[in-house]
Every structure is written in C-alpha cells, then in structure tokens.
Amino acid sequence: MDCIYCTPEWLEESVRIYRATPSFQEKMKRLSVSVFYRVIAEPEWGIDKDFIFGAVVTNGALDELRFYSEDEAKKMPEIIMAASPQQWKLLLRKEHKFVTDFLLGKIKLEKGNMAGALGMAPYAETFIDALTQVNLQFQDELNPQQLNDYRVYAAQFRSKLGV
C-alpha cells in the first residue's frame, strides 16, 4: 500500500500491520511508554504547522498511534521528540540511526529526560520497521500538484481531527 507521510492513512495502516505482526509485539514486549513525535512545520513540504503524532505502547501492545493536538501533547506523553520532516525521513528511510542523530542534537528532546529517551533506543529500529511496512512517500517526492493536494487534504483532516 502507498501512503503519504503525515496522513491518517499512514498511521492507520501502520497500526493494522503492527497488530497483525506478532514479531513486532514480541520484540517490544518489555516496552511500555507514551512517546510523541513532533514534525516541525516545513511549508515547502506542505506542512504549514507542526504535526504531532504519537504512540502509546503497553508491554509491546500498540494501544494508540495517531495525531494529537498541542493540548494533548502537553498532558499525555512521557517523551516528546522533535525534528524536521527531512530528519524524520532520514530515519524512516533508514539512512540515519536514531541514537546517533539524537545524541548529535538533530532530534530534540522536548519533554522527558535523556535516560528515558535513550531507554527507547533498543526499540527504535523495530518501531521504524513498523512505520515503514507501507510504501511511504514523502512530500519532497511529490509533484507540485500532488503537494498542493496534500496541503489541502492536510488542512481538512487536521480540522476534522482537531489537530
């Protein structure tokens, strides 16, 4: 399945695949965390305002993976990490490693502590695998019409979801 980055379809399909793949849950069974990821606004990518998506995992079971509002992000997660969409793309394409980029400051820790964030490092590759089981298209790979369509769609679903 083809999905565009930062769409509800991408997150919904990732949840479906994660829950249908026992090996993901098995590899993550020692992890219980709520972690959110901020995708910093990048108008050239059709991302006019920050996106926040997050995962709630309990003993490896994926309870939630969805977009969140700023208010929810202030209350809910233990950890919030922020980076540009270009940086997230490098991780999701497995061109960079989470720990390296985190320690180099390319991924900022907005909420939580360093120990908690680094404690997730052993699970990062598995989580990235779960998010990339679909054919993920990034906004810099879209033609101008597709990018405009994405911008319009993003405004629509953000309004509908309250994010």
Entry keywords:
alpha/beta, five-stranded mixed beta sheet, 23% strand, two-stranded parallel sheet, 163 residues
Classification by helices and strands:
alpha/beta
Q: Write the CATH fold name.
A: Nonspecific Lipid-transfer Protein, Chain A
Strand order of the largest sheet: 4-3-2-5-6
The major pleated sheet works out as: 5 strands, mixed
List the domain count as a whole number: 1
What does this structure look like?
The chain is of the alpha/beta class. It has a single domain (2-158), classed as Nonspecific Lipid-transfer Protein, Chain A (2-Layer Sandwich), CATH 3.30.1050.10. The protein has eight helices and seven strands, in the order βααβββαβααβααβα. The strands form two sheets. It has a five-stranded mixed beta sheet. The longest helix has 18 residues, at 144-161. The protein starts with a strand and ends with a helix. The relative contact order is 0.21. The model has no long low-confidence stretch (mean pLDDT 94).
